[in-house]
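Q: Please design a sequence for this.
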């Protein structure tokens, strides 16, 4: 089913941004430096926690920044610092080496990592995005009105792109032969350029990266057709909070405290995304981050990834076990992963706060992003 992203994003269709070339990053941000208040003993020594992002610091990371700024981690006895990532796979690999204590990345690449590194297994302890931004993006004038119309077309993506690796499953759902697709491989930073130049008919990737980049190239939201995998039979979860199994076993209280504080940050960003965006911009040490582009990215995340019917029902951080297992089975087939992993092998809910503490703020309390 075709999905056109509209709503307030149309207002920002002239914004300029390229997720792959954005040099705004935070090499090492110490948690809560501006806010020294705590709810416990002020003299209590804080435990240092090293966190890696999935990519460059973006508005997707606003909940983490807000939780740091407001002292939520300090209240839990944690001093959180984070560094930029270089893509989900790289983040997972570095987490596996023990360079970081926690990380933000996806469970599906984690499944592949675990199958190849059984002694260094990683597990998700909370879901950050209830839906994945996996998508195929094209232009309306290409005449592609549904995934089925991709048959025989030229698609572009980096070699390791997750949605590209899963495309044979999307093709099956759409009833087309995946071998009819002519794939063009390029560097991540050139993906949108290839589409804009007409070298490919469509691209696969994360909508949160592709859309802002196409807007930079002069396109408007009305020019785009976006086909989300989760609307075509591949209902995947997005990024999660990950930790190595041995770190979880040795530090269960730390993991639980981190998740609690982070989810408070998510709730605050849902309530007031404008304040969340301002906190993010203030944390940008390079001062090169494009505020308007990050506003577009955050709007996509709120509307598509975070505020979902499932999150409204289950609360933030949780999963539907049947949905997760189905997506795991699809990943095993798409990534050709050995073994028969179960949902319990990749996700645990034992570190989530009670549901009453992680509900989404009522709709009436959610400010619009302006």
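A: Design:
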């Amino acid at each position: 089913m075709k999905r056109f992203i509209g709503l307030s994003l149309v207002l920002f269709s002239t914004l300029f941004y390229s997720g792959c070339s954005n040099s705004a990053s935070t090499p090492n941000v110490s948690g809560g430096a501006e806010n020294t208040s705590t709810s416990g003993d002020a003299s209590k020594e804080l435990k240092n926690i090293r966190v890696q992002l999935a990519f460059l610091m973006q508005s997707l990371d606003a909940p983490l920044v807000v939780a740091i700024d407001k002292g939520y981690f300090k209240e839990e006895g944690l001093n959180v610092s984070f560094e930029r990532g270089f893509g989900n796979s790289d983040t997972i690999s570095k987490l596996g080496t023990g360079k970081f204590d926690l990380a933000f990345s996806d469970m599906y690449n984690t499944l592949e990592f675990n199958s190849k590194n059984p002694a260094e297994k990683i597990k998700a302890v909370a879901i950050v995005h209830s839906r994945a931004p996996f998508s195929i993006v094209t232009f309306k004038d290409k005449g592609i009105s549904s995934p089925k119309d991709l048959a025989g077309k030229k698609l572009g993506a980096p070699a390791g792109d997750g949605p590209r690796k899963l495309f044979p499953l999307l093709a099956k759902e759409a009833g087309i032969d995946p071998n009819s697709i002519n794939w063009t491989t390029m560097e991540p930073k050139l993906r949108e350029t290839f589409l804009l130049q007409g070298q490919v008919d469509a691209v696969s990737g994360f909508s949160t990266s592709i859309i802002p980049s196409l807007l930079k190239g002069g396109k408007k939201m009305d020019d785009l057709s976006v086909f989300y995998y989760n609307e075509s039979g591949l209902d995947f979860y997005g990024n999660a909070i990950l930790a190595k199994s041995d770190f979880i076993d040795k530090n269960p209280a730390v993991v639980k405290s981190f998740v609690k504080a982070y989810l408070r940050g998510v709730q605050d960003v849902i309530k007031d995304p404008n304040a969340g965006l301002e906190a993010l911009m203030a944390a940008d040490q390079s001062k090169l981050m494009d505020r308007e582009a990050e506003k577009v990215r955050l709007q996509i995340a709120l509307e598509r990834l975070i505020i979902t019917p499932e999150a409204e029902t289950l609360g933030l951080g949780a999963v539907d076990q049947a949905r997760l297992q189905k997506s795991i089975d699809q990943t095993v087939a798409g990534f050709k992963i050995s073994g028969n992993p179960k949902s319990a092998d990749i996700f645990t809910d034992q570190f989530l706060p009670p549901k009453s503490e992680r509900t989404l703020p009522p709709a009436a309390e959610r400010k619009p992003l302006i």
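Q: Thanks. Anything notable?
A: The radius of gyration is 20 Å. Residues 134-231 form a domain with the D-Maltodextrin-Binding Protein; domain 2 fold (CATH 3.40.190.10).
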